[in-house]
Amino acid sequence: MLSYKAVVLAVAYLSWSACALPIRREVPQEHSHEPIITSVRASLNVNNPNGIEDPIFGLLGNAAAAAGAGKITNLDCLQQATADQAFTNAKAAGDVEGMTNALIFRAIERNTGKVGLASVLCTETAANPEIAALTQHQDPASTGAAATNKAITLELAKQIASIGGDPQDALKSGTFAPGDLNDSTGKGNTCDDANDPNGCIFTQNLLVEDATTDEISSAVAGVSAGSSAATAASSASATADDTAAATASCGSASESLPINRVQYHF
Predict the structure, then answer these.
(1) Nearest alpha-carbon partner for 91 in 123, 140, 55, 130
(2) Where are the alpha helices (DSSP H) in 108-187?
(3) Which residues contact 143 (CB under 8 A, 6 or more apart)?
């Protein structure tokens, strides 16, 4: 297992050397939902056969995620793989809260290159159908994000209900208010504070809920604990154009801050 210092140095090195031009990415926001990250980390560390360094890597763009992906080679699926293993471990322990947080983690928005850019969806199937039914929130300024993110939240609520959790917790997976598409800094309306154990998106009241409590209750009507996953695929989907646009590549707009302004926290 790499030490904390080694991970930080590896991330910095890969970010610097991956292309001839400086690597850039969106202003960090991966610690916005810190309580979820903390829970998933604890569950993942019980049994981590793929050697994933930390859940945080699953929320980063591919260039940065590579340093902590362990045996996961499809970086578009690192977030799903992390959630899947954490869910498996929590399920084996009968830990409903751990399973719930693994599901929420799977639905959290992943960093992309700029305001309005959707992230690439994982095309692999998770081992747990509850995880397989989900995908990540998309940048709230991306095309169709309001409908997409609402569908993800309602599907998440169903999966949480199916394992005996509180379906209203699905609202915790929400993201920020849409940013300005012309914002060249890539910051949008995000926050990132690794020192806030309660999650800066919550403590700073930046979370935009995708659905009402009544809509959550309606969505889970008839779903009971112990029922099978409602679907094997997310209700939300990305267009081929979104997928192509979000694929990280050197020289593209896959990341949007100069390397000397990027901050990594673990």
Answers:
(1) 130
(2) 129-132, 145-162
(3) 116, 118, 239, 242
151 within some domain: yes
CA distances (Å), origin 94, targets 46, 90, 98, 122: 13, 6, 9, 27
Specify if 212 maps to a domain. Answer: yes
Q: Name the residue with tokens 């639905």.
A: 107
**Which of 163, 161, 175, 169 lies closest to 223 in space, CA to CA?**
161
The answer to whether residue 266 sits within a structural domain is no
Nearest residue to 49 via CA among 98, 88, 103: 88
Domain count, the chain: 1
Tokens encoding 222: 């008839």
CA dist 211 and 187 (Å) reads: 24
**Amino acid identity at 97:** E
Q: Is the dihedral of CA 149, 150, 152, 156 positive or negative?
A: positive
Q: What are the tokens at 100?
A: 């719930």
Question: What is the Cα–Cα distance from 17 to 142, expressed in whole angstroms?
Answer: 29
Q: How many CB atoms lie within 10 A of CB 111?
A: 24
Instruction: Give residue-wise pLDDT tens across range 186-244.
Output: 666 788 888 999 999 889 999 999 999 999 999 999 998 987 544 333 333 333 333 33
Residue 93, in any domain of the structure:
yes
Cβ-count burial 54-66 (b if 16+ within 10 Å, e if not): bbbbbbbbbbbbb
Q: What is the pLDDT of residue 13?
A: 35
Task: Give the CA-trace dihedral at 225, 226, 232, 234, to 10 degrees.
Answer: 10
- Enclosing domain of residue 36: 4-261
